């Protein structure tokens, strides 16, 4: 292909890999592409290293034509081979429409720094398709996501609290937390987030956040604690771009009842205003329970008028630690709320309102299909959770004592825990552990655990043990109601 026709075909626009996507090399020539938002890890794909190599060249320093010229040069490719690669990339651009975007859409602070490309090093990514087996089951060499619970302490005491809030002797010291963040950065963990408890109850929270930002983790801390002017200014100075505030209602009395604290609405509103004033995005998370479902649309309008642009509404589901059946909402009310939210979306077209819910009826009646189509369980295959005292579990809401503990970060590294027999024996557990359950005699036991897995969090919530079927499995008995 002549230089001229390549330029004509591809144009001179400078495209950049959308900063919401990250790439890293794993083992066995596999490359992982992941969609990571500041507040959560969305999805990961295993891709061919050649595609990863090409994507990494879209660093905002080259036009598309230049990128393909580099690829041609590094790979010593013929025109046909180059066209084949362009086609492959177009398939990915079709699958993920915002994967490559014009550089003008990315603020300076999120652009990649200009570095000299070492073409010799890049050659190792150009390998034959037969040298990489993308379809074989594969466990990542290190976690993609780590959630750290820096404390179980909290400013509020919510009626639906999901945190275990076990009494512990001492929380991980700042020095050890920094080492964990360092190791996570070296292992190229895509997303490192804080949950809890309320991370802002720690006196050293600014140091923790500063270190996370320094090591390249784009984090959205969440809080129920009122944040002072000094705190929001410090957060802005560190480079925190968004904070999640929990608020379930704009009725002042109900807000106090739900959080079991005083003047919660006033404090949360003040925090949101302060965050917005210093240029930090205030996101809001609300839990939909029978107590507040009728006021959720009012809450959305209240928040949008304040200037909040992202609201996440989650249907209450059984808390393993503080549950009451009174909190459940019914499917009919959820459907009515869904319609109201739709109307609000029309009125505020720029608002980003997400609603997470499953309908109880379809969950149980549609298990056959839902089980086949379930998303692969990421516990221990993509991520892990570190409790305030260093105990490590595979998923949030699993107890950090007993069978579900896979390691202790006070004496082990992330890598040691990730590759430990203890962790592997929870993802691929022995059949004997399931005596007395349908899993014990299940002919699909191996397929189930080697494949998409079963949700151990829901097993625990529905049957009180992690060695039980997922309640979504059509073979499972109906356990405790989850939502
Ligand atoms: S969850 Fe269902 S498919 Fe999986 S092992 Fe248990 S019974 Fe079998
Ligand atoms: S245990 Fe359940 S909630 Fe946790 S990652 Fe697996 S499927 Fe998701």
**Strand content range:** 5-15%
Q: Estimate the helix proportion, in percent.
A: 25-40%
* Distance separating the two termini: 59 Å
Low-pLDDT segments, ≥5 res? none
- Measured on Cα atoms, how large is the radius of gyration? 24 Å
Task: Compute the average pLDDT.
Answer: 90
How does the overall form come out from the CA principal axes?
Answer: globular
Widest sheet, order of strands: 7-6-13-14-15
Which structural class should the secondary elements be placed in? alpha/beta
Which small molecules are bound? iron/sulfur cluster
Work out the number of β strands.
15
H/I helix tally: 18
What summary fits the major beta sheet?
5 strands, mixed
